[in-house]
């Protein structure tokens, strides 16, 4: 008991800084989605070209992941986290000097390099502070930064962009990243690798090649990949969807999506984490089952959002996002728990490569292309429902491969 308390107390400073960096990470990622219209107008870009900006980010993000994962399993993660945060903040700041579509495309790609490092190393660091059973709790809190950061990014893009031009939000939101990186360099701790792992060792959990024979890892990864296709495409296009379909202004659409995302994100992520934590005491498959039911319940809400009456668009969006966020903590915890410390950063990097290669790297552009050809953004977004259905099936199948926790192994 004394050891647990002594580790948790000092960890709070590092966890708080990682949470702050994750928040800024998602703010910077979603600024552009909050102001598609003025950027599209300035550069005379089609929907497919605007979607390609999302593809540029995730393409670089997914190819940077394997290299950074290899580094994370062999070198100290603290300086790597600081370097990544500094790089994505510099790339965000660079938007103020962008005056062509090709330069904007390049800037968007560079943001992906910086964010790839942080997205891999931060969960691995957190896993070394907490045992398997407690990781769902701490990662659910950590990933609250996704909806809050996305919401703030939408709001910054829509509100600041409407008032002072589309470049202003990038300048405002880049500066805190440099400060957070400096604080982490000064205050962040580097925990001992694997000190809190208690699930028994096996070849599949301890080697890189074992990842491809590890069904717990593979089903969580590809279930998340199908989900990521849908979430990436929806998050990129939904403000513009509300503007076109519901007749909202750019500012109101961004405000609506931002408010919905932050409310649903906080509530859904924390409630989903709580349900999984309670269920985990009775069923070691809980992380997978909560995730599967989360995606399944999103499907009817998505149908209503994209193809129902326009008056129901906002309530349907609210319900869909709530159910989607239920799986955030449990599914990411399932991935972290499916492997042991010697290959954890590499496993997270392989996971990131897969979820973006098969997920959101191409979904914004595919949705944009379908929209251009059908003259209907609703039909373009409707393609995401197929991937939600596939994700549900994979996650239900993956539940039978969930690893037993320490006390469940000995009981």
Structural class: mainly alpha
Helix content: over 70%
Mean pLDDT: 84
Rg over alpha carbons = 20 Å
User: How is the biggest beta sheet arranged?
Assistant: none
CATH first level: Mainly Alpha
- Straight-line N-to-C gap: 20 Å
CATH topology: Growth Hormone, Chain: A
Order of H and E elements: HHHHHHHHHHHHHHHHHHH
Beta-strand segment tally = 0
- How many separate domains make up the residues? 1
Number of helical segments with 4 or more residues: 19
Shape: globular
Classify the oligomer: single chain
Q: Could you say what the CATH architecture is?
A: Up-down Bundle
For this structure, what is the CATH homologous superfamily? MFS general substrate transporter like domains
Protein model, in words:
- The protein is mainly alpha-helical.
- The radius of gyration is 20 Å and the shape is globular.
- It has one domain (about 10-190, about 210-405): MFS general substrate transporter like domains (Growth Hormone, Chain: A, Up-down Bundle), CATH 1.20.1250.
- The chain has helices spanning about 1-30, 35-45, 45-70, 75-95, 100-125, 130-140, 145-165, 170-185, 205, 215-245, 250-280, 285-305, 315-325, 330-335, 345-360, 365-375, 375-380, 385-400, 405-410.
- It is about 80% helix and about 0% strand.
- The two termini are about 20 Å apart.
Provide a compact summary of the structure.
With 411 residues, the chain is mainly alpha-helical. It is 79% helix and 0% strand.
């Amino acid at each position: 008991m004394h050891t647990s308390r002594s580790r948790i107390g000092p960890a709070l400073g590092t966890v708080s800084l990682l949470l702050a960096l994750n928040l800024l990470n998602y703010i910077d990622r979603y600024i552009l989605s909050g102001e598609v219209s003025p950027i599209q107008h300035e550069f005379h870009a089609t929907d497919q070209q605007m979607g390609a900006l999302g593809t540029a980010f995730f393409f670089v993000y997914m190819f940077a992941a394997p290299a950074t994962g290899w580094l994370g399993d062999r070198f100290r993660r603290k300086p790597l986290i600081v370097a990544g945060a500094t790089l994505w903040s510099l790339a965000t700041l660079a938007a103020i000097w962008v005056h062509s579509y090709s330069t904007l495309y390049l800037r968007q790609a560079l943001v992906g390099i910086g964010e790839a490092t942080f997205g891999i190393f931060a969960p691995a660091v957190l896993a070394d502070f907490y045992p398997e059973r407690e990781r769902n709790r701490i990662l659910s809190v950590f990933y609250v930064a996704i909806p809050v950061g996305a919401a703030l990014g939408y709001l910054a893009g829509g509100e600041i962009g409407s008032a002072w031009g589309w470049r202003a939000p990038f300048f405002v939101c880049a500066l805190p990243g440099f400060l957070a990186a400096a604080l982490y360099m000064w205050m962040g701790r580097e925990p001992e690798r694997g000190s809190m792992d208690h699930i028994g060792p096996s070849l599949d959990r301890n080697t890189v090649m074992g990842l491809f024979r590890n069904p717990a890892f593979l089903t969580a990864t590809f279930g998340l990949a199908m989900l990521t296709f849908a979430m990436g495409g929806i998050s990129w296009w939904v403000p513009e969807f509300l503007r076109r379909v519901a007749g909202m202004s750019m500012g109101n659409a961004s405000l609506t999506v931002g408010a919905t995302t932050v409310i649903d994100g906080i509530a859904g992520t924390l409630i989903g984490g709580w349900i999984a934590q309670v269920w985990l005491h009775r069923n070691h498959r809980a992380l997978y089952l909560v995730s599967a039911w989360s995606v399944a319940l999103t499907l009817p809400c998505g149908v209503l959002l994209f193809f129902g009456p326009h008056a129901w668009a906002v309530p349907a969006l609210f319900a869909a996002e709530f159910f989607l966020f239920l799986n955030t903590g449990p599914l990411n915890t399932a991935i972290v728990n499916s492997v042991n410390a010697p290959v954890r950063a590499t496993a997270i990097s392989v996971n990131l490569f897969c979820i973006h290669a098969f997920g959101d790297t191409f979904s914004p552009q595919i949705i944009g292309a379908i929209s251009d050809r059908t003259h209907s953004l609703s039909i373009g977004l409707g393609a995401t429902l197929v991937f939600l259905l596939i994700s549900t099936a994979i996650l239900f199948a993956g539940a039978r491969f969930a690893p037993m926790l320490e006390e469940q192994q000995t009981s």
